[in-house]
Amino acid sequence: MGFSVKPTGDSFCFQDIIDMGLLAFSESCCDIGERAEKEFNIENMLNDMFSIWEKINFELPVYKETTHIIRGCDKIQETLDEHIINTQAM
Predict the structure, then answer these.
(1) What tens digit of pLDDT does each residue of 8-22 get?
(2) N or C: which end of the chain has fewer CB within 10 A?
(3) What is the end-to-end Cα distance of the chain in Å, rounded?
(4) Distance between CA 65 and CA 9 in Å, rounded?
């Protein structure tokens, strides 16, 4: 395109797009918009995963006075599996 388009506020409208001659670049604009949407969705999904892991507490009770075990592994494993699948789908 050769120039930046940075809409500001609520005053940016379709007429501004026409005036800038962006219709000639509609395919490029669509590609950029689709990539931006995917990136936004990935960021939101990663933030959601992060907030879930912040709330998970690992219980480490003493086992046979010399070692510790992780209690409640099922919930942790379930969450981990779900997040692995979601990450691979990205």
Answers:
(1) 777 888 888 888 888
(2) C
(3) 29
(4) 63
**Residue carrying structure tokens 């507490």:** 57
What's the structural domain count of the chain? 2
Q: Which helix (H) or strand (E) holds 61?
A: none
Residues 2 and 29 in one domain: yes
Model confidence, pTM: 0.64
Domain that holds residue 83: 56-90
CA distance 18 to 15: 5
Average confidence (pLDDT) over 48-55: 93
**Paired strand residues for 68:** 62
Asked if 43 and 69 sit in the same domain, the reply is: no
Between CA 2 and CA 26 the distance in angstroms is 14
